[in-house]
Design the sequence.
């Protein structure tokens, strides 16, 4: 019964978020046809505002669990959204790897996970273009295809904004015998980053 009510809640809240984003932020969804209707997927995008996670969740057309920082649970709205959409909360700067295990299990179960490889909002600028290897690690360990995402626009009300989904990237050739090392992860991370930046620089 609880899961049924959550599903009903997701339908209602998703509709409200999509409507809000379309009217207030004039968000245009581009490339949705690139998202496979079946199969394990890892959604990876650039991170500009707090609106990004719900925007991806409600426009992708696939049920996914989004990785988010633990601190967001202090905000009643984000805590509610995290509960409703089964968010995976991460304790940053901690040795706790429970969130990583949950993400791995979710992908190995054939479901979808969303995350921001920058690690924080506007992380590419703050970290001089560096990217965390979490997305690469998850993709290599589970053979999940990666959907790169570019979020474009000033993210201000009544301006042009867009969310652009790229074609799925298959990294199975890099995951021979399920063995990974930092060199491989760095290479995969660089590919993911470049695809995200390419989409994020699209003119709309």
Sequence:
């Amino acid at each position: 019964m609880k899961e049924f009510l959550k599903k009903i809640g997701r339908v209602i809240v998703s509709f409200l978020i999509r409507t809000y984003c379309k009217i207030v932020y004039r968000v245009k969804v581009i490339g949705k046809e690139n998202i496979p209707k079946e199969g394990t997927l890892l959604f990876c995008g650039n991170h500009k505002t707090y609106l990004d996670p719900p925007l991806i969740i409600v426009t992708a057309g696939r049920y996914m669990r989004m990785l988010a920082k633990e601190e967001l649970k202090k905000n009643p709205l984000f805590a509610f959204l995290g509960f409703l959409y089964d968010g995976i909360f991460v304790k940053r700067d901690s040795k706790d790897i429970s969130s990583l295990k949950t993400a791995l299990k979710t992908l190995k179960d054939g479901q979808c996970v969303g995350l921001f490889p920058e690690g924080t909002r506007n992380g590419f600028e703050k970290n001089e273009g560096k990217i965390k290897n979490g997305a690469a690690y998850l993709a290599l360990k589970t053979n999940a295809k990666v959907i790169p995402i570019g979020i474009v626009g000033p993210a201000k009300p009544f301006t042009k904004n867009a969310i652009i989904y790229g074609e799925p990237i298959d990294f199975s050739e890099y995951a021979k015998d399920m063995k990974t090392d930092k060199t491989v992860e760095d290479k995969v991370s660089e590919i993911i980053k470049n695809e995200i930046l390419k989409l994020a620089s699209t003119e709309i």
Remarks:
- The two ends are 43 Å apart (CA to CA).
- The mean pLDDT is 90.
